[in-house]
Amino acid sequence: MWNFIQNQILGMKWLNTLIKNLLIFLGVDTNSRLGGSINFFLYDVIKITILLFVLILIISYIQSYFPPERSKRIMSRFKGLWARIIAALLGTVTPFCSCSSIPIFMGFTQAGLPLGVTFSFLISSPMVDLGSLVLLMSIFGWKIAVAYVLFGLVIAVVGGTIIEKLHLENEVADFIKNGKSNEVSEEKISQKQRINLALRSVLETLKKVFPYIIVGVAIGAFIHNWIPQNWIETVLGKNNPLGVVLATVLGAPMYADIFGCIPIAESLLAKGAMLGVVLSFMMAVTTLSLPSLVMLKKVVKGKLLFVFIAICVIGIILVGYLFNALQVLFI
């Protein structure tokens, strides 16, 4: 039963077979590089779009029960380590990219929540979410998907703890520290309104991320069908001990979300890249994109920004090497 769910529902292997047969019917040689690229591109774009539609609808519906004011109240009930754990978990049901998480982070900071708590949220929000869990399951299987999310949450909680222990409250921009959080009364909305809001969120998110899906799948198709496997194995395979570091450094400046990264990760893994290298690349792209760091520089000072980047980079590299070790031992 689980294999059926993994392959036919999440992985949509039936869709790949359907597209391949259709291309053959149209006279396209799917065994050629060009035909294989077309097959890969159509299959991944359609599959990710379908999964994305369903996932955003579900996640946006869940989000309607956690408006910012309610999230602040939930986190304010907890102290210490538990507060950071709750913040990291709340990050899993928030927007999909690092840039859209920063305004929420600002609101939490203005509301007086501890700095470590707000940074646990800021790290987990783009790095791990319910959507990434399902999409990773569709490609890598449930064990790797769950491990990815758990390690991401660990980075978020540990990172928030380090920042809180360093007492860097003075490194927050003055307009954030001195600003007041606007208390907005929570209106009770009907189920119909929740569904309408979720559908609107689906359209808005698809409009925003679809270009990245197209680019990501196109890159994945190119890697899958045009780059020799021995090249990938040499640079990102087990014979290069610095593959994780290289993937993290290359991924950090890019701007994309989990949905645009997955086709690239899928192709790299199929070509012989180590699992930890691929997952480190995904974490770096989603958490440390250059636009998000530029935005974050507006609300925190240099020392705190450096500590945030250092925590994320070191955590991502450690997780990458851990996945590599697990791959060698168990996979």
Q: Label the structural class.
A: mainly alpha
Total helix count? 17
From the N-terminal CA to the C-terminal CA, the straight-line distance is: 21 Å
| Main β sheet profile | none
So what's the oligomer here? single chain
What is the overall shape?
Answer: globular
Short description:
Helices cover 77% and strands 0% of the residues. By secondary structure, the protein is mostly helical.
Features:
331 residues; 17 helices; mainly alpha; 77% helix
Which helices and strands occur, and which strands form pairs?
Blueprint: H1 2-10, H2 13-25, H3 33-63, H4 68-76, H5 80-90, H6 98-110, H7 115-127, H8 130-140, H9 142-165, H10 174-177, H11 191-226, H12 229-236, H13 243-251, H14 258-270, H15 275-287, H16 290-297, H17 302-330
Helix pairs in contact: 1-8, 2-3, 3-8, 3-11, 4-5, 5-7, 5-9, 6-7, 6-16, 7-9, 7-15, 8-9, 8-14, 9-17, 11-14, 13-15, 13-17, 14-15, 15-17
Describe what this molecule looks like in 3D:
The chain has 331 residues and is mostly helical. 77% of the residues lie in helices and 0% in strands. Helix 2 (13-25) packs antiparallel against helix 3 (33-63) and helix 7 (115-127) packs across helix 15. The chain is globular, with a radius of gyration of 21 Å. The relative contact order is 0.12. The model has no long low-confidence stretch (mean pLDDT 82).
